[in-house]
Amino acid sequence: MMDLPESIREKVLRDVIDTAPFPIGVYTGDKMKIVLANQSMIKTYGKGPDVIGTNYTEILPELENQQIFDQLREVLHTGKSYEAKNARVDIVVNGKLKPHYFNYNFTPIFGAEGEVYGVMNTAAEVTELNVARQQTIEIEKKLRLAVESSQLGIFEIDIKKGLMRGSKRFTNFFGLEKREFTLNTLVSFIHPEDIALWHNALETLSETADLNCELRVINNKKLQWIRFSGSLSESDDKENTIVGIAQDITVQKENAQELMQLVEQRTLELRRSNDDLKQFGHVISHDLKEPVRKLLLFSNILKEDLDNDKKPRMSQYAHKINKSAARLTEMIDSILNYSSAGSPDLNEVVDLNHIIENIKEDLEIKILEKHAVIEHKKMPLLNGSKILFHQLFYNLIANSLKFSRDNFDSHIKIECSFDSEKLLITITDNGIGISIENSLRIFNVFERLHSKDEYEGTGLGLALCKKIVERHNGKMMYVKPETTGAVFEIILPASILH
Q1: Is the pLDDT of residue 359 over 90?
Q2: Which residues form the Histidine kinase domain (predicted)?
Q3: Which of the four CATH numbers 3.40.50.970, 3.30.530.20, 3.40.50.1820, 3.30.450.20 does domain 150-248 have?
Q4: H helices present in 67-126, as ranges
């Protein structure tokens, strides 16, 4: 290099400086005029290529309040170098102030007389390293918070030495005071039936590099479930070391066991219920539908013969038989659909007027026997199950007819009213009534207030009515009447109105 002419040496030196992979700049005078800046430094300035000859303080005014200029002037005046490590420097790049991190030096340049006439600025940008370090710190902080909030214990296992180290919470799982102990000490706490599982988990580490197992441990005669999760460390200074976390999962295991028992119990109950339902559907479809089919066949033949003979009265009776059989078939089909679907459709449009009229036809003979009058105003359309509402009103009207007073014409009145919150349906009769002490018992399954000799029935009617109302998010109650008879109130949410 010394053998080269001075002009060539200067060019080589400039090329070296200009292509250097780190920023290099030279500033002179109090105004810190830029007399040299390599490509890396020009890129760092972020002010474009035409910066040579301008003042450092003018192209980077954002440094004024960051003590950079004070550091430069101190080097110019004292001749002492200045060094900074991982220093944050905010620079405007493309119109935006952005944080950067640098290791930088300000080195004085001396003249022939020993005076300081300039400062050389060298730097190495470490922004990415600092961002990564901050992210690592943040991740570690979040991890600590997660571990604490999750009540996790942290452990390390030195496989070669057979030693184990753990956090305070980890050692508390076993009632240990020391933070470091042997693997054999840990094994002494493991349930005898789970020791093989622990050894197997350690042996599979060579294949999977992961440790995962759930073990029962016994601490002070108390059984606990501990979940171990870990992996081989990738750190060079922790070769053959397992790092991981442990969690007390006793409560989860107990809850899971209770849930499993409950599921098994409910499954058994559901299986029994389904078996009963299938049997019920089978009986209806085979034992009842066949005679109904025959009834329809012979009533049609009877009706045709009577129409030809012009006997209108007998033809009318045959028509009633035909209509009743058709209604019975419709009811059986509805029950079969209900049993096959498992639950009724609660979003059907229900016409209560139509249902009540059908019930009056079904109970026509009983109504005639009791000289009954069934009075009802125009009822609203509802969203619900047709078959369930039919069952509800059928049971209530049939009950009123059954429990009518001797030597009195039966009178049944159905009323309704509604507002923005609820729909109120009231069924009133003038029958024998129900005493107040029995007003709650009547809704119990198979509860009978009278003997079978007095009144026929199963004791299911009102219990089913209450279930049907509750199925539609309502409630049903018995109300003490002002005089004789019985009064039932059904309260349903206003949202049921169609």
Answers
A1: no
A2: 283-496
A3: 3.30.450.20
A4: 68-78
Residues 6+ apart with CB under 8 A from 248: 151, 173, 224, 225, 226
Q: What angle do CA 5, 10, 13 make, to 5 degrees?
A: 125
From residue 108, alpha-carbon distances to 27, 125, 196, 301, 463 in Å are 10, 21, 71, 125, 101
* Class of the domain covering 346-496: alpha beta
Per-position DSSP letters for 188-209, written without gaps between them: TTB-GGGHHHHHHHHHTHHHHS
Angle, helix 289-308 to helix 312-341, in steps of 10 degrees: 160
Tell me the whole-structure pTM to 2 decimals.
0.41
C-alpha to C-alpha distances, 455 to 403, 438, 452, 459, nearest whole angstrom: 8, 16, 5, 10
Over the stretch 93-152, which tens digit does the pLDDT of each residue have? 778 888 889 999 999 999 888 888 899 999 988 888 888 888 888 887 777 666 666 678
From the list 431, 430, 443, the residue with the least C-alpha distance to 478 is 443
Tell me 404's DSSP state: P
| The two structure tokens encoding residue 197 | 């599982």
Q: Do residues 406 and 421 make contact, with C-beta atoms less than 8 angstroms apart? A: no
Q: How far from chain centre, in Å, is Cα 97?
A: 43
pLDDT digits (tens, 9 = 90+) for 411-459: 999 999 999 899 999 999 998 887 777 667 777 654 555 544 455 544 5
Could you please state the CATH topology (level 3) that the domain comprising 6-132 is classified under.
Beta-Lactamase (3.30.450)
Q: What Å distances lie between residue 110 and 70, 77, 121, CA to CA?
A: 19, 12, 14
Q: Cβ distance 356 to 312 under 8 Å?
A: no
Domain spans of the chain, in order of start: 6-132, 150-248, 255-319, 346-496
Tell me the backbone φ, ψ of residue 84, rounded to 5 degrees.
-130, 145
Intrachain domains 6-132 and 150-248 with the same fold: yes
H or E segment to which residue 337 belongs: helix 312-341
How far apart CA 440 and CA 275 sit, in angstroms, is: 31
